[in-house]
Amino acid sequence: DAKTTQPTSMDCAEGRAANLPCNHSTISGNEYVYWYRQIHSQGPQYIIHGLKNNETNEMASLIITEDRKSSTLILPHATLRDTAVYYCIVRGGGSQGNLIFGKGTKLSVKP
Amino acid sequence: GAGVSQSPSNKVTEKGKDVELRCDPISGHTALYWYRQSLGQGLEFLIYFQGNSAPDKSGLPSDRFSAERTGGSVSTLTIQRTQQEDSAVYLCASSLLSGRRGTEAFFGQGTRLTVV
Predict the structure, then answer these.
(1) Backbone φ and ψ of B2, nearest 5°
(2) Which residues, 6 or more positions from A21, have their beta carbon under 8 angstroms from its beta carbon?
(3) Which of B61-89 are b and which e, b meaning 16 or more Cβ less than 10 Å from the residue's Cβ?
(4) Which of B9, B56, B76, B110 could connect to B48 by a Cys-Cys bridge, CB 3.0–4.6 Å?
(5) Under an 8 A CB cutoff, do B98 and A100 touch?
(6) What is the C-alpha radius of gyration for chain A, rounded to an integer number of angstroms?
């Protein structure tokens, strides 16, 4: 079973920041938080991951709370092309590196 | 190409026939995953190969499903005696085995299986 909880759906206005929350209260010390997204009819696409520090790349920022029980993916300036299902996944290292997808959050970016 | 390659891209088969789906991971990637996705549904985990360790088969839905990974590279997912409910997109992904740093998984474009 997925170890994360996400809202089923969210809306965001084009050009505004999209903040997608994720709860992972049972995360253990060696598990990373990963975010993927799936645009309609395509394979999932990696976005970002982190362990305990906040991370930023060209696509998004990842904010992880100090207790690591929750995180937020931030798309700073959402576009219509960011409409997708966003998955938050907890994944261990080495032999615990399985990727189990939950139901994700359907983000709809509206003009 | 440098990405994960799956073949065939589309497969139509008659109920009761066996099918084999192929996945060529990115060269050097030691972890390989299989998922299926029915229309409008999320990704359902099937099996996970991790280097030389025994695969995690906990997601295989029945004994009609099996997978192997030869030589630590190419993987084949086999579905025996296909049923209509097996119709779905079957996705494969690969990644470097995580060490001290997690690494992202790259997905293929999938095989769309239709059982008629």
Answers:
(1) -95, -5
(2) A6, A7, A70, A71, A72
(3) eeeebebebeeebebebebeebeeebbbb
(4) B56
(5) no
(6) 13
Q: B90: distance to nearest CA of chain A, Å?
A: 10
Give the pairing of strands B88-95 and B111-115: antiparallel
**3-state DSSP call for residue A106?**
strand
A 10 A CB-CB count for B2 gives: 7
Residue type, A90: V
Using a CB–CB cutoff of 8 Å, tell me whether B34 touches chain A: no
In whole angstroms, give the CA distance from residue A96 to residue A94.
5
User: What are the strands of the beta sheet with B75-79, ordered from one edge?
Assistant: B5-7, B19-24, B75-79, B65-69
Which chain B residue has its CA at the smallest distance from A50's CA?
A: B102
Q: What is the pLDDT of residue B51?
A: 83
Tens digits of per-residue pLDDT, A42-95?
Answer: 889 999 999 998 999 999 999 999 999 999 999 999 999 999 999 999 987 655
